[in-house]
Amino acid sequence: MAALQVVWTDIASRIAMSDVPYLDTPGVCPVCGLVSTASVVRVGGPYDRYRYAQCGLCALEHHVVRAEVHQLRFDQGHRLSCNAHR
């Protein structure tokens, strides 16, 4: 897994911000498609209290809304579902 992380981190570091697509799927990395493994909240500076999900494969941090749990969501039938099992 460590070798894959090195390769994917290198790939992600070479992608321009404008080439990273916006995904309407919460918790999924827009670069490699893996479900995010952790999230951090920035303290201080221009992004104070912004929450970022971090990908365990390519190390990309992408902004997620703090009021939502990024692994769970309600579908149209108001059932709670986990994106990792979709």
Please outline the major beta sheet. 3 strands, antiparallel
Shape: globular
Helix content: 10-25%
Strand content: 15-25%
**Class computed from helices, strands and strand pairing:** alpha+beta
Helix-strand sequence: HEEEEE
Mean pLDDT: 79
By DSSP (H or I, 4+ residues per run), the number of helices equals 1
The side-by-side strand order for the widest beta sheet comes to 1-2-3
Distance between the termini: 23 Å
Tell me the Rg in angstroms: 14 Å
Number of domains: 1
**Low-confidence segments:** 80-86
Give the tally of β-strands.
Answer: 5
What does this structure look like?
By secondary structure, this protein is an alpha+beta fold. It has one domain. Helix content is 14%, strand content 21%. The chain has one helix and five strands. A hairpin with a 6-residue loop joins strand 2 and strand 3.
What brief labels describe this structure?
single chain, disordered C terminus, 14% helix, 21% strand, alpha+beta, three-stranded antiparallel β-sheet
How would you summarize this macromolecular structure in one to three sentences?
With 86 residues, the protein is an alpha+beta fold. The protein contains 1 helix and 5 strands.
